[in-house]
Amino acid sequence: MGKSIQELSDQLATNNLTIAALESINFITNNAWQNVAGFENTIKAITGKSDVDSIQKIGRKAIALYNDTAEGYQIALWLYQVVDHTDKALSTFSFGSRFNEKIPLSNFFNELALKSEEAQSLDLCLKLTAELTALCYLNGISDKQIAYFGQSLPAYKNDSLMRMAGLVCFDGLLPLGANFTDKVLSRMNQITPHELRDNLTFQKIRELIPGASDDAKLKFIREVFSSAKDWMDELVKEHDLSPQAIGKRLHGLVDFTDDKLDCLGAFLDAVLNYYEHTGTQTVTRRLIERAATEV
Q1: CA dihedral in degrees (158, 161, 164, 169; nearest 10)?
Q2: Kind plus residue range of the DSSP H or E element containing 254
Q3: Looking at residue 182, what DSSP letter applies?
Q4: Which of 187, 191, 252, 274 has the maximum number of C-beta atoms within 10 A of its C-beta?
């Protein structure tokens, strides 16, 4: 086992490019998402407890639940991490902890790798598949039920809703453009099992995806996307989202021209870890909510 859930929560960033990017689209959650970092801070924020004894009891129980390998919390967190860590072209570049001026996107053109629509579509679908799988582990559901995913998305809030908002904006609209869900649906119908096997993220999470063959796993991935498509389309419509609207909100962070939205998408894909960040918050939240009812 790696770091404890307490360490992971305590090490969450409070001010970096990922946080700034998420705050720029926080309007999608009606500004309900708060970047709570720190294990004790999270216990206080979720439970409203302030006395040391209660906080310590809840914390110890949450840690015990996370450490129990019969539970699914570690697997869920690993899924959030792995889909964010694969193929980070600029992962070694440090942007520091504070931002005093905009980052010039032109400085990174030579390092950016623009993905094909097929590759971007598959990556988005694999993130959704990881989301469903993590959701099942968090809720103690043994079978990866696609219908359960579609039913759960409308109830998403806080860090979970922010994660899906990030997916729609940073992995959907910016790199693929308007009507990205239709493009993904079309591209996924063209992807072959061989192309699926070549994908680094798929290689890492393959054993957790239902299906006896890669053909069956590809069918499952397509069905996961289909189950989420209507909800994502409604989110776009409800908040009047577009590549241009998202780009406008990011202009304060990154210096780019409006004809480089695809490059902006590639840049954000290479540097943001919003899936891991909000995923850590989600797992910590679930642990504390359960611990608070059991102590």
Answers
A1: -90
A2: strand 254-255
A3: H
A4: 274
